[in-house]
Amino acid sequence: MEKMSASKNAPNKPESSQPLERATSGQRSRSNTPAISSIKSAGAASRPAGTTGRPVRDVIRGNTARRNARSNSGYEDRTQRSDRNDRTIAWIETKDAERRLAEERKLTQEGRVSELRARREGREQVRPTAEGWKQAMGADGRPELQFATKKRVTQPPTHFADLTLEERQAKLKELGLPSFRAKQLSVHYFQHYTTDPALMSDLPKNRREELAEAAFPTLLTEVKRLTTDDGATIKFLWRLFDGSTVESVLMRYPGRITLCVSSQCGCGMNCPFCATGQSGLTRNMSTAEILDQIVQANRVIAEGGLGGLRPGDHAPERVTNIVFMGMGEPLANYKRVMRAVHRMVDEAPEGLGMSARNITVSTVGLVPAIRKLADENLPFTFALSLHAPDDELRDELIPVNSRWKADEAIDAAYEYYAKTGRRVSIEYALIKDMNDHAWRADLLADKLNARGKGWVHVNPIPLNPTPGSVWTSSEPAVTRMWIDRLEAKGIPTTLRDTRGKEIDGACGQLAASEA
Q1: d(Cα 59, Cα 69) in Å, to the nearest integer?
Q2: pTM of the entire structure?
Q3: HSE-up of residue 72 (Cα within 13 Å, Cβ side)
Q4: Which of 79, 119, 225, 282 could form a disulfide with 265 if both were Cys (CB 3.0 to 4.6 A apart)?
Q5: Which helix (H) or strand (E) element contains residue 244?
Q6: What does the DSSP assignment read for 239-308?
Q7: Any catalytic annotation for residue 507?
């Protein structure tokens, strides 16, 4: 009874806990099945489309594939864009190449090959242009050349230096004097450098002035003298008997003294870079006028005008070297220049007793006259002022090139070497972006080597640095490159040491100005 009562009043519990646990476990298992299914359904509803019912690894793989697909699509887009860019660049390059080719054809047809070659070097091609003056032009539109004076001019009176020793003796006999007086007068002029009768004590006192006046008429009168700061260079301005003016430059170097002499009053070669040619040709200088530049320079040296001997310098105190690179074209005054050269090398007292090997005759390229030089039987040095190896530029730079082309001038120079055995000098003024391109150095070397080896030496000449002018010096690096290219092809090359720039006494600067 108590049990029944207790049973009624107690909570409703299973009779045994162990069976209840098993039952609960089994019931949970059976009752959870719908719940899991509903969770899966709910999860399926929340999954992205396309992943329903797939394992997670498949979902991950699918996402990766989609990312790869998107990445591949972007890569393809970038590739397509790159391809389009490449095609555009190729089209532009093709059009640019076609344009350049058309320009090159035009330049070639117009004969402007040098401009084309300069472009290929990434450089300019500056054209020769007269600055501050106007070139005289002929009827054909080319720079006018002047080989002779336009009007008849009076020549200076005959001077003892114009004559050979025999001719001097004959002249004195005409004056009623014995022939040996000719030798005495020659000693005074060519060895003592004087024309002052008061210093000629070995002549009859009552006839000294008469003899000095007859033998030594005044030819050059010094107008102005400019000296560099170091005293090693002097530029002289001379007035001639007819009022014409010329210049010469005296330069001291270790072991030698060089005089740059003029051979004409003005110049008719009309080169646009040369100050001398601006006024054209006035007249040819006489043999004695050329020689008197040397005699008067020797007098200045003897008086200490060049500073006297330097420490360690044992050179004789007189002019030892002559260069015909002053005013004028020497070979356009051929006869008088050659007489002067012979008188320079004649033994004293007939002449100055100089070494022919120390005399340099220069020309811009008068081919017939060059060919005559070898017949003079004198071993002087011949120099060709070339300045450009190609006719396109040289026609403008050196107008005489319209008569005799660059190859003709080089051939004539080689013939001089072949006949005399004397090495030829090629003078080449380096002008920025005008004639200092690498291809011109190569062309010059090739042309010289084509004639043979060992016959020529090149002297590049640096111009004055002149900002804003087309006539300015090459950059130092370009000058070095130019020389290196010549030497690489076996051409001996020496950069010339120019003097007198600060007194307008360097190459191409002589203009005989009294300002």
Answers
A1: 15
A2: 0.77
A3: 6
A4: 282
A5: none
A6: EETTS-EEEEEEEEETTEEEEE---EEE-SS--TT-SGGGG-EEEEPPHHHHHHHHHHHHHHHHTTTT--
A7: yes
Q: Taking CA 316 as the corner, what is the angle to CA 315 and CA 317, rounded to the nearest 5 degrees?
A: 110
Beta bridge partners of 16: none
Choosing from 260, 487, 507, 514, the catalytic residue is 507
- Interstrand relation of 359-363 and 281-284 (parallel, antiparallel or unpaired): unpaired
129's tokens:
């242009």
Query: How many CB atoms lie under 10 A from the CB of residue 119?
Result: 15
Instruction: Please say whether the beta carbons of 247 and 327 come within 8 A.
Output: yes
Supply 184's token pair: 């005495």
- State the DSSP string of 155-192: PPPP-GGGS-HHHHHHHHHHTT--THHHHHHHHHHHTS
* 354: nearest Cα among 364, 362, 369, 343: 343
SS3 129: coil
Please choose, from the candidates 385, 382, 390, the residue with its C-alpha nearest in 3D space to the C-alpha of residue 364.
385
- Res. 103: pLDDT tops 80: no
Cis check for the bond before 349: say yes or no (omega within 30 of 0).
yes
Q: d(Cα 114, Cα 252) in Å, to the nearest integer?
A: 39
Among 474, 475, 409, which residue's Cα sits nearest to residue 444? Answer: 409
Task: Specify whether the CB–CB gap between 419 and 398 falls below 8 A.
Answer: no
The Cα 243–Cα 514 span in angstroms is: 12
Question: How far, in Å, CA of 274 to CA of 509, rounded?
Answer: 7
Per-residue DSSP letter, 267:
-
Which run of H or of E encompasses 323?
strand 321-324
End-to-end CA distance of the chain: 160
- pLDDT higher than threshold 80 for residue 395: yes
Distance CA 265, CA 234 (A): 20
pLDDT the model gives residue 100? 61
Q: Are strands 256-260 and 264-266 parallel, antiparallel or unpaired?
A: unpaired
Which letter does DSSP use for residue 150 in this model? S
Contacts of 212-216 with CB under 8 Å at 24 or more apart are: 214/171, 214/175, 215/159, 215/160, 215/168, 215/171, 215/185, 215/189, 216/159, 216/160, 216/185, 216/189
Number of CB atoms found within 10 A of residue 464's CB: 16
d(C-alpha 159, C-alpha 219), whole Å: 8
- pLDDT tens column, 349-389: 999 999 999 999 999 999 999 999 989 999 999 999 999 99
Instruction: Name, in order, each residue with C-beta under 8 angstroms of 449's C-beta and a sequence gap of 6 or more.
Output: 489, 490, 491
